[in-house]
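Budget justification note: compute hours in this period were largely spent on complex prediction jobs such as the one shown. Inputs:
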Amino acid sequence: MAEDKNIRDAEQEKVSGEQYSLNDDRRVKVLSPGAMVIKRFLRNRTAVVGMIVLIFMFIFSFLGGWLTPYGESELFYRYDTQQKEFASAIENVELRYKGAEGQDFGNMVQAKMLLAINTHQDTFEWDGTTYTLSEDGDGLYSAALPDGTKVGMAFRPIFNIVEQGAEVGFETQYEALKAFLNKQSSFSAGGKNYNVDSDGNVTLDGKDFGFISTYNIQPLMGDVFLTREFKDQVVEEINAGNTEFVFTDVDQVEHEYALKYDPQTTKWTITQATMTRVYDTYSAPSSEHWLGTDKYGMDVLTRLMFGGRVSLMIGFIVEIIATVIALILGGISGYFGGWVDNLIMRIVDIFYCIPSMPIIIILGAAMDNAGVKPGVRMVYLMLILGVLGWPGLARMIRGQILSLREQEFMTATEATGLSVKRRIFQHLIPNVVPQTIVSVTMGLGGTILTESSLSFLGLGVKFPFASWGNIINDVNNTYVLQNYLFVWIPAGVLLLATVLAFNLVGDGLRDAFDPKMKR
Amino acid sequence: MNTLKYVVKRILLSVVILFFVALIIYTLMRCLPTSYIENVARAKATQPGSKSFEEWMVQLEAAYGMDKGIIAGFFQWLGQAIQGEFGDSWQYTMPVIQKFQETIGISFYMSAISMFFEWLIAIPLGIIAARKQYSKTDYTISVIAIACMSLPTFFLIALLKLVFCMNLGWFDLIGVISRDYAQMTPWQQFLDRVNHMVLPIVTLVLISIGSLMRYVRTNMLEVLNADYIRTARAKGLSEHKVIYKHAFRNTLIPLVTFLGGSLPGLFGGALFTETMYSIQGIGYASYYAMTAGDIPFSMFYMTFSAVLALLGNLLADILYAVVDPRVRVS
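Corresponding output:
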């Protein structure tokens, strides 16, 4: 009950707060200078948008790199089907020759035989021997000695053996072809009885022994044996005019083949689609790689996160280096004045005048030449950018301190006998902090821009480290520029958004720190 | 008289600054591994029956005048540079000055044309933004200005190429003339050159317009808040008269200063634009010379840039004093 009463009292007090008397201090809401700045900053809508973008970038880069399942330079592979030459098929339109075992069936005999076939003669002579030529079927000729012994044959259809590595004698082949061409269903050779069907299948004791075909199909590699089924299918596909087919082997594995006819050699080339492990380059965005992969086969989104980390870190470190130098030199110069001021300002003039971009390019090229490691290179890059980046800020700080020095509160510090160190660092420096913050924020955008430009030229952050600049570098390849937008557009958008956000926030801060601002 | 004295003093100071800048650059270049000479020596040493790499290095360094100490070498360079003699470029194997004369023309024309458009667009937009401060128009213009300032040049060029060269096919990707340039009539040749200049100039205008736009807006705002503008309004002058007769004329003072400061920059070349569009200007030439480690050309280009920067500052200050009678040099 007591608690309830307290709450009611508090509520009453709140309500009555609206009716303070006119001269009551509580009527005026007093804000500290810091709160005023924050209030003014939050009222600037573009600056707030910039701040949100920056917060997103930090989360994206630092948390994202930690959350992503992939590493900064983790390579991905895919299996790619590549057409490899596998076998060749040729329709046998020429006569082929085979001699009987133990008989002399040399080239000259073959030539004489061909001549006799073409001129439709029954006999031909060679080396004093007269051979009898007989046509045993369409595309099968045999030559015999006067005593009737067959010495060899010329044939177009080819007898193929089913069993791997087996040899077939002349007699068997001859009889098989003869039986096939004369549409006989069986023949005997070497004391064995074979059956042959109209498709040219030869069986021995009910088992496949061989087959006859006008196509000669040879594997490209010596250790490959082409099965009967495969050869049959190739012939079928050739006759059907197909250019691609799928063959299922004995193990029920499907293989894809492609047929290509070369009219010059009258040869069909059979290429087999084989799976090869390759870098998964430029694969389109998928559930696995949300923004696809780049030219090395790395996840673009992950690279972007690590790239952001690198860009932001370089930006901050460079700005810290530049600000420390600028605060020290600008502070000394502004406070002491006189010849110290003169000397430091001439140094500032000189540094201000050094063309920084050429210097950085030359140093970058020299580091390339000296083979500096990518990690060490990044450190050098930060040092160079930092050392070249301070003069403008130093000049501003000096100007500020020069005018602050003359104000009453500084006279007061002198009158109270404060040490010089304390006067500079406790009374002068805090007064230039707002301008410094503004300048550093704007400078951050500029530094990130410079770093990414260098990385784009290949003179800044180098592979394997990611940077938004070196991700966009790929557009130098015109094909990537047009076809793989997912590789370079996101990096560019992030870069632009970050620099823009830094500039907007810097702008907003400047307005917020400015007490003269009316709104 | 006072002004003259001031100008002379400034020029003398600039000469001193220039001396130290050149000294720093020269020292830096000499301390770096002189990649160019090393590469030549390495190539020569691999030829059959050749001298060793070290012997070639000694000989080549003597031939290129790199065998002297840094200070002695610098003064030799300086002595020749004062006479306008910058030596022969290693990369282009011709006198540096000759290469400079070949390349400066196109860079200058490109910068001059883009600067013209930049001013033409930025001034009206800056004035509009200032007149309607805190309006939607002002926010839009300000954000566009900052966006232009934040644009990475290489990304902008890639985007422009994608849209206008690849997708629309209006322009060629690179180069300054078409392949069939020789077969064209003079008028067609002119049009062809204009066609190839469109994208580079658009690029240059876009990347440099932001800062000018903001500059115009800031200065215009300052003037509009001045007492004499209130007086002019109180007199009952029309808004048009107030803006263009009273305010704009006073904005011209900082603008002329800005213009003076940016004039020398016209000769500096545009590194990214020239290299990415393959335009053989001074930016293009210097980029390839610098990456090859060509000391004479790089020295010349950097000294030249430093001179331009100093000249820009000087010009801006002088013009400020000339344009604004209230400024008295002390």
